[in-house]
Amino acid sequence: MWYNGYQFNIKANEKIYNATLVNYFLSKYDYGRCEEPTKMLDSNVASDYKAIMKLFHIGNRENNYKVLEELIENNSIRGSIKDRYDLNKEFTKDDFITLIYSMGFITLEEELFADRYRFSIPNYVMKMLYFNYFAVELKQRNNLKLEDDISTILTDLALGDEEPFKKQLNEVIKTLSNRDHVGFSEKHFQVITLALLSFAEFYFIDSQPELDNKYPDILLIGRDPKVPNNYLFELKWLKERDNYEKVKQEGIKQIEGYMKLNKVRDIPKLRSFLLLGSKDGVEFLEV
Q1: Residue 182, CA atoms < 13 Å, CB-side half-sphere
Q2: How many CB atoms are closer than 10 A to CB 199?
Q3: pLDDT by residue (tens digit) across 5-26?
């Protein structure tokens, strides 16, 4: 999960692994207690974070930003591998996909047809780097006020106090949705929520995982059993023409369905919330 390998040929039977991450794990592993490192992300991987930031500035930044949004929302993206690209000419979506694929920031998932492929984020380390970078982009592009110590807000959430996180998410959603009220959607709501949650190193973040053909929007599962609370979030976006009560009841019904699944029932200390977002902010309803 953390260090899953990379595939650069759809016919390959073996995957390639990041030597820096593997060596870090082996050097930090507690062989006496048979315990994995407390911090699974090597600080040296910060160089990859900087590389991602530079790559997304190549060519058409807006198109690249849409690729970033799609990767965060779906954990995958479809495209072709180009034989070559000329930075002096139009830099297309497939050009950019080829670039980040060749750098190991996405990996081959499956061949679709006629040289069209599905690419995915290779591992959890890279997924968190994408989420963190997206949060930085959000802040810079929109002059957002983000708390410097977002980890403190997320620690409060783990301890059972959701109010600081609710306040921070409200500020971001109000600002962005009012600037782009017509184009803002549930997809944007979810991506922004995931980006803010990505700074919680003590949680595994699972976005729309498949659970018996049902899909909770976000699951936060503590990496350590001592984490006091785990969370399930279902997100709904209300447009002006939507019926509030209908959307609310639909979300509650979905959560009640998730909570009956064995895979969810087995999660200890789980709290479930319906997040109702609109241009006026976010309402947290515990179900």
Answers
A1: 0
A2: 18
A3: 888 888 888 888 877 778 878 8
Residues 252, 245 contacting (CB under 8 angstroms)? no
**Beta carbons within 8 Å of 151's beta carbon, 6+ residues apart:** 199, 200, 201
- Contact criterion met (CB below 8 Å) for 119 and 97: yes
Contact 85, 99 (CB under 8 A): yes
From the list 176, 210, 213, the residue with the least C-alpha distance to 193 is 176
Cα end-to-end span (Å), the chain? 30
3-state secondary structure of 124: helix
What is the SS3 assignment for 253-287? HHHHHHCCCHHHHCCCCEEEEEEEEECCEEEEEEC
Q: Which comes out higher in pLDDT, residue 195 or 144?
A: 195
What top-level class would CATH report for the domain 148-286?
A: alpha beta
Any idea where the domains of the chain sit in the sequence? 19-120, 148-286
pTM over 0.85: no
Q: Which residue has the tokens 């009012």?
A: 178
How far, CA to CA in Å, does 237 sit from each of 42, 63, 163, 194?
36, 24, 20, 15
Note the pLDDT tens digit of each residue in 225-246: 899 999 999 999 988 788 999 9
Query: How does residue 251 score in pLDDT terms, banded at 50, 70 and 90?
Result: very high
Q: Residue 84 corresponds to which amino acid?
A: R
Contact in structure between 49 and 133 (CB atoms under 8 Å): yes
Percent of the chain topping pLDDT 90:
25
The C-alpha atoms of residue 105 and residue 99 are separated, in whole angstroms, by 9
